[in-house]
Amino acid sequence: MSLYAIGDLHLSYQVPNKKMDKFGKVWHDHEEKFVENCRKMVSDEDTLVLVGDHTWGRKMSECEEDFKYIMSLPGKKILTRGNHDMFWDSHKTDKLNEQFAGKLQFLQGNFIPYGDYALVATKGYTFEGPFYLDSRGRIIDWDEKEAAKAEKLVEREYKRLVEAFEKAAEAGYKKYIMFLHYPPTNVLQKESCFTRLADQYKVDQVIYAHCHGEARYDDSIKGDFHGIKYSLVSGDYLKWKPQLIIQ
Ligand SMILES: [Fe+2]
Questions:
Q1: Which residues share a beta bridge with 180?
Q2: How many domains does the chain have?
Q3: What is the pTM of this model?
């Protein structure tokens, strides 16, 4: 029984104008590459966490084929929420779980047990600019208004994450894997409220996605930070091979 994760599938079976091919070779037939890798690596006893940005469909009727594809993947599938998942109203996660009962699990601002671990997830948020650069490409300033807006969204997501940890702790869990869609820090930060919460709950691992395209791979923490393992699992970064989280 193993736990795997990957994010940013950005499926577009019903909105072909959104196909990701223009973002480079790694995206060509990425759906087929990913299925093939899953069949080689993931068994039906395993769990696969899909870390947000599943589909370009804006409403459920535009996502049906994408969900069929996800349901056809091996293993138990847990979906967390990304910034492009318009089908997913954050206040109606229970409804999604009812609709896909026995097929898919949707996790946002809550936890799901995995052995003696609690898998804790929320979308997260980070300020992504606009930044102003000097002639050498170094950040010298940023949009204060956008930064203030981002701060509010960070606060909302932070509260959701606190709630998720509190529920897991109340249920008796002491071991945690934390999932965010957004990176835990932005390019200006060394740490954030999300990394401090990971420290506070002594989580084993922090998993995030969202940073796709080579220029974004080093936006945030990767590897060991305060004794916690941080992993970027965006699909193109992983070349569509799900990342093993726990053996
Ligand atoms: Fe994203």
A1: 122
A2: 1
A3: 0.96
